[in-house]
Amino acid sequence: MGIEEITGRVARDLEHLKQFTATPGDGCTRLPFTKEARDAVNFLTETMKEAGLTVHEDAAGNVIGVLEGEDTQAPCVMMGSHYDSVINGGDFDGIAGVVCGIEVARQLKENGIKPKRNFVVVGFCDEEGMRFGTGYFGSGAMLGNRDVEYCKHYKDTDGISIYDAMKGYGLDPEKIQDAKWPEGSIGQFLEAHIEQGPVLDAENIELGLVDCIVGIQRYMVTVHGRADHAGTTPMDMRLDAVDAATKVISKIADWAREKADGTVATTGYINTVPGGMNIVAEKVEFTVDIRSSKNENINDIANRIRAALDREVKAMGGSYEIDTKLVITPVALSEEMLQIMEDDCKERGYSYKRMPSGAGHDALEIGQVIPTVMLFVPSKEGRSHCPVEFTKYSDFAKATVIMTGLAEKLLTR
Ligand code: GLV
Ligand code: MN
Ligand code: MN
User: Fold this and answer.
1) Ligand 3 centroid to residue 270 C-alpha, Å
2) Which of 316, 333, 377, 413 has the smallest number of CB atoms closer than 10 Å to its CB?
3) CATH number for the domain including 358?
4) Does 298 lie in the same domain as 233?
5) Quick check: 1 pLDDT over 90?
């Protein structure tokens, strides 16, 4: 199959998927357990079937297509990414990796490969954690890391829990642990993804061989003060939740900068209650997302945040609580699989570079326990998590050729 035909198939699938957004004309908004998610899953199901895969949806909302090998009980080779998006995100983050997985299955068939074990393509549910502030829901469930209590605990900003959202979507959250794959049943995991940063585009390099993914910790902090009149309450007689919270928030970026090694920390969400111009805020909620390839840096910043909250909230006279949303350590990806892809890139004359990933991925969750590799394609001007996100379809096609080569080697040895 020529690269033009592959490009055409990837383009056709991704162009079709673009329509499944809650914000037409303003980027992709495909939150988990919504109509848009269901429409995308239906399309992926059909596309996987057309590619010759046997398809089902699991208890966590992952869509799974299987190309059977000789020994269906042997550890499979799995490839996938997520079908959800952030709010007003792009048309490629996640979903392109699912489409690439289906394309790899097509190429394996066209190349006449007789796989010794199953090749499994997965569209993961709720990688982003956008709606519930969490992350890697579907991939975590596949590893047995999600349970009913987890589903009941995490809620979106409308107060709807994962548990209730799943029910409304037609899934039974009581069965979430059915999504777990038996230990040893996944041999390797492969993920193709857009880079979401500027390096490959700026350096005019076709493919990124990802050798590590940062660790991430995410918290929702709630600071409690007292609502009072903004005009009549003297400055030393108020319990101002905004005053205390912002004294902490204002330090977080500096603590990350101090590390000077790529560590990042972000407060992307702040909510004040009741949120009136002339009312001292009785409550502030804010998020913290800390990432680094060094886990000790993440722990250090999280500890500094706790210490600063203790200090500032005590000085204010209120209280606070921290809800831990995600704690995941950095992973090194499989050197063996990187080497196979690197050799193939050299042979085909594709330019490549080894690089780390600052974005989180299903590969981060799965890579904690299973040999995993990722392949990046360039993001125009590094833009992502916004509507202008763009990658050339021909770049995805090259990624599928390299990943087909890797899958072929793994499936036939
Ligand atoms: C997901 O895209 C993340 O890195 O937050
Ligand atoms: Mn993604
Ligand atoms: Mn994303």
Assistant:
1) 20
2) 413
3) 3.40.630.10
4) yes
5) no
